[in-house]
Amino acid sequence: MTDRDTLAERFETHRAHLRAVAYRMLGSLAEADDVVQDAWLRASRADASQVENLGGWLTTIVARLCLDRLRTRASRREEPIDTAVPDPVVSSAEGVNPEQEALLADSVGLAMLIVLDTLSPAERLAFVLHDTFGLPFDRIAPIVQRTPIATRQLASRARRRLRGATTSAEVPLKRQWELIDAFLSAAREGDFEALVKVLDPDIVARADAGTGISPFGRTRRVRGAEAVASQALAFRRLAGGARRALVNGSAGLVVVADGRPYSVLAFTFGPLAITEIDILVDPDRIARLDLSAIGSVD
Q1: CA-to-CA distance for 278 and 265, rounded, in angstroms?
Q2: Contact status, residue 7 vs residue 61, Cβ threshold 8 Å
Q3: One domain, residues 198 and 283
Q4: Using CA atoms, how far apart are residues 262 and 282, in angstroms rounded to an integer?
Q5: d(CA 247, CA 254)
Q6: What are the backbone angles phi and psi of residue 274, rounded to the nearest 5°?
Q7: Are 250 and 137 in a shared domain?
Q8: Are 108 and 278 in contact (CB under 8 A)?
Q9: In whole numbers, what is the pLDDT of the chain averaged over residues?
Q10: Which range has the worst mean pLDDT, 50-64, 94-108, 172-186, 268-282?
């Protein structure tokens, strides 16, 4: 076995972790896979014989590649962040498989990934690597070209920005499904009042249809229970095709229409109501998702 073969075997033991880091950094499954592949190419061309901590070295390579991509995004001024829904990780309603468990470190929801998109590239990297994956600031500092103290400040600023972000982690899955079922039942029956009751008064719904028209028409972001309930009534004709699924570890839906996946709905929950809905309707991105967990769409 050659040194390259040995390195390839050792790299595979770290692949799931590296993909999780890249997904948390970029919010894109396709880009995460691209970055991990680029990391392998770089690692295979380097002399890794003297590397004592292979996992740390590979994580640094992935982090640098992600930082480059985030900076490129920022310079291109891509579409507004409040209408860009990250790639969802869709699992069976029965549970997340082991590969997805590694990808969903700390059960990162789409709503949290959207807030992460509001951070500067350096803030996002410092926060993700330290707060999620436990890297010390003195190892993160060279990546962002700052001192460890300045890097700590980046993570602190990110933490403050994220403080108001909602999460479903404290709401039991059983309660999440109760809220989903109530939402679906009200939508199917066209019951506006029942919809309003299951939605938080300050709920935010976002729809990402790519370059197409969102389910909200030309508006892609709706706030308030009554406004979201009004839009959800238009979901009535599609509600029959809604299938239960875990979306980034929380209760969600995949909607099938005309024999193909039409949309993925990710929900964020409070104990009493749904607080956020993130809808991916972009057909090109949906076609690239692994939706095998929901079974046949025929």
Answers
A1: 6
A2: no
A3: yes
A4: 8
A5: 9
A6: -80, 130
A7: no
A8: no
A9: 87
A10: 94-108
